[in-house]
Amino acid sequence: MNLAPESGSSRRSHLQVRAPAKLNLTLGVLGRRDDGYHELESVFARIGIYDDLAAEVIAEWEPSLRGADELVIEPGGSGAPQGGHVAGPDDLVLRAARSLRRHAGRELPRLRFRLTKRIPTAAGMGGGSSDGAAALLLGALAWDLELDAVGLSRMALRLGSDVPFFSSALPVALVRGRGETVATLGSPAAPLGVVTVTPRWPVHTDQVFAAYGQLRGIGPSTARRATATLADLAATGAEPAAIVALAPELREANDLWPAALKVQPSLARARDDLEQALGVPALMSGSGPTLAALYPSPSDAAGAAARLEATAPPSLDGAAIHVAELPAGG
Ligand code: C5P
């Protein structure tokens, strides 16, 4: 199992990892599969917006609500309200823990997870999936479980289509199939800056794929061409400026855009206004609604975000604006 240096694990009884967000630089839908999912071809990139997941063993003598692992979710970020809430059993963190328990097939001490949430939810940034992948990693460490890459990837896919990408710990990857085929793509030669803007209305992935199925006459995928161009660039350690120059093509390279618009028509206005305000193209990540603009450096992105904060149009009222780095390789 790959333990990224940023994982910052400490003693086995109290462990912590960072769970990054992702951006889809392209998202091609190649067709519907027999299992009801869609065949995808997408360039995924990790970006520097993080949830923190910590786990500690619940001592035998400590009273607990149920004889199961627990998860407390706390809002992160400056100015976030204090206090957390106890998550239900369907949260991907607890599902990951149950899946590890089944794999182990023996009694394991109970864990208390604490999740500090900064990645917007139902936003197309993979926050829940990344938390699930982080929980697989933490649980395996806390319980000292051996997991080979194939077993881990299978468990990850059962949690969700985006989880194998996060479990791979690759910074940039070409993701295919339902999400289970994850191949490395080179990272940029220097960090890119990204401004993400997440409108206040959530957009649910299953609804977007359902709408995709109902749309007729979607033109030939521009996503495949953009994916091939990015893969060529990545192979040679692309300069950030070369990737930023592709933004107009990447903007058209998300096949879910028309379906996302069906589910949430306000997206059209939000993207127009954002592009007007920033003066650069905005891509949609995943099934939306997060929109993102690329910059040749993190400081360029910070400047653009500050200007946007000062002049945000009404269609973006209440949107969460983040500046993030798309890290360089090396
Ligand atoms: O796998 P996950 O639970 O994240 O997927 C959420 C929903 O997105 C699925 O219920 C399915 O409707 C849709 N989906 C899809 N094809 C994929 C990934 C997701 O149809 N490759």
Topology:
Elements: E1 14-32, E2 38-57, E3 70-75, E4 85-86, H1 92-104, E5 111-117, H2 127-142, H3 149-159, H4 163-168, E6 172-177, E7 181-184, E8 192-198, H5 205-214, H6 223-235, H7 240-244, H8 247-251, H9 257-263, H10 266-278, E9 283-284, E10 291-295, H11 298-311, E11 320-326
Parallel strand pairs: 3-5
Antiparallel strand pairs: 1-2, 2-5, 2-6, 3-4, 6-7, 8-10, 8-11, 9-10
Helix pairs in contact: 1-2, 5-9
This protein binds cytidine-5'-monophosphate.
The site of cytidine-5'-monophosphate (C5P) has 11 residues, from strand 2 and helix 5.
Report how far the terminal alpha carbons are from each other: 20 Å
What is the average per-residue confidence, as pLDDT, rounded to a whole number? 91
Structural class of the helix and strand makeup?
alpha+beta
Q: How would you sum up the major sheet? A: 7 strands, mixed
Give the overall form: globular
Low-confidence stretches: 1-11
| Computed Rg | 20 Å
- Write the element-wise H/E pattern from the N-terminal end onward: EEEEHEHHHEEEHHHHHHEEHE
The hetero compounds bound to this protein are: cytidine-5'-monophosphate
**Strand proportion:** 25-35%
Summed up, the helix count is: 11
What share of residues is helical? 25-40%
Q: What's the count of strands?
A: 11
